Every structure is written in structure tokens, then in C-alpha cells.
């Protein structure tokens, strides 16, 4: 038993060393960087922001496609960036631009073990669904939920990119019957939740965002973000329950019963009705996004 514990401690230490070396990302495209800077300035006008975004028509198309997705439920089709900014507001535009930025900076080549398009589609759908749930539940921190959910599986992408041989061994263990969390812990001394959490802390990301990433499978263990982590957990579970998207990591994910209690669901029937009510808008949103990510 002591030998096993020591071996796991060594693997955990090795993983932490790798993560400490991951200090840089691919540069954010200049236009996205400029837009994010403008969004930080409270005095930025919608016209100035729209002018900056309009410099890159591919980004314009992506933002308009996202804005017109069923999740936003807009009565009138959004046909210009100015109108998108007016209707959605700066916070929502910031969320969209941040998502596009992260997709660019963490972009990695797909291979036989992981499809990057499927990974980011899952991340974005989980994020927009989590924000929608937070808004529907009148949770004030819905923008933070969006960011936490967008990053919730960051650890998986990091393992694939920087610890690829370990990633392959984890996949092989799962194919032989192991659960992902068991295979991750066995190979790395920690799971992808902790990998993402550790990396975000190394980057000095706000603690509550790190916390949501760390506990998105077991939100009941969180001290500071139980409700927010529970929303992300539910959103993540919903993509599996509704069989929406092709990302198969965590395909053995089960709903944490304590998370359901934290979100004040009365019973399993209420949860299933709630989840089913999101099927159509999530499916429609995926259809509108597939060609963008």
C-alpha cells in the first residue's frame, strides 16, 4: 500500500512540474486582443467596438452566427455588429470574444485520440448552457459561470498537448474498462479537474474561476463556489444525458446527487424535465456553430 501511495505521489509531482513549465500560450490574434482591451474600457462606445471587430470579417461572421443562435431567442435577426452589441450588451460580447480567443490560443492539432473541434464545441456548449441555467435561476454571477464552464475541461486539452503519451495511456485504460477519472489518477497522480485547476492557478486566474474548474464533477466538495460549480456540473452532465455533441471524454459522467440538492431540485423527475426543456435550443445552437469552431 505504501509503495502505491509513494508511486502516485511521484506521478503527481511529475505532472505538477510539467504544468509549471506551461507558462505560455499561442498568441491571441491581434484583432481579438484589441477588442478585449476595448471591452475593458467602460468609456468604449458601441460604434468604436464595432469598428474594431469589423476589421476581421471572419470574426464578424462568427459573432453574428452565435448571436443568432436559438439560445438568445432574439425576435429580430441580428445582421450587424452594431446591432449585436446593442442587443446583447458588452458583457455578452465579451463572453463570445473571450471564447473565440481561448479557442485560438489553445488550438491544437486533432489526432486519432482527440478531435479538437468536438472538444471546443463541447466546451462552448457547456458554457452557454451553464450561463443560460444561471440566468434562468437568477444567479447574479452568470458571466463567471460562463468562463468557468468554458474552461472546465481545460485539463483534458493540456494533457493531450503537453503530456501526450500519458493521454494515450489514459485512453487505452478506458478502452479496457477503466473510468476516465481512475485512469487519469493512475497515470498522472491527479485527474483533469486538478490539472486544469493547477494550471489556472499558475496563470494567476481568479480563485473562484479555478475553484469551478477543480470541482465541476464534485461541486459538493467546493467551499466557495458550490452553486456555480453545481451549475457547470449540471450543464456538463446535460450534454451527455441529451447525447448532444461528439466529445466522448467523461462519457461515464453521472449526475452528482448533492449537486442536484444544492440547486434545489425536488426529485429526479423534476431534474429530467428541466434537462429535456433545454434539448431543442442546445441542439439548434450546435447546428449553428459546427462550421465556426
From TrEMBL:
<dbReference type="Pfam" id="PF08668">
    <property type="entry name" value="HDOD"/>
</dbReference>
<dbReference type="InterPro" id="IPR003607">
    <property type="entry name" value="HD/PDEase_dom"/>
</dbReference>
<dbReference type="InterPro" id="IPR052340">
    <property type="entry name" value="RNase_Y/CdgJ"/>
</dbReference>
<keyword id="KW-0378">Hydrolase</keyword>
<feature type="domain" description="HDOD">
    <location>
        <begin position="25"/>
        <end position="219"/>
    </location>
</feature>
<dbReference type="InterPro" id="IPR006675">
    <property type="entry name" value="HDIG_dom"/>
</dbReference>
<dbReference type="GO" id="GO:0016787">
    <property type="term" value="F:hydrolase activity"/>
</dbReference>
<protein>
    <submittedName>
        <fullName>Metal-dependent phosphohydrolase, HD subdomain protein</fullName>
    </submittedName>
</protein>
<dbReference type="InterPro" id="IPR013976">
    <property type="entry name" value="HDOD"/>
</dbReference>
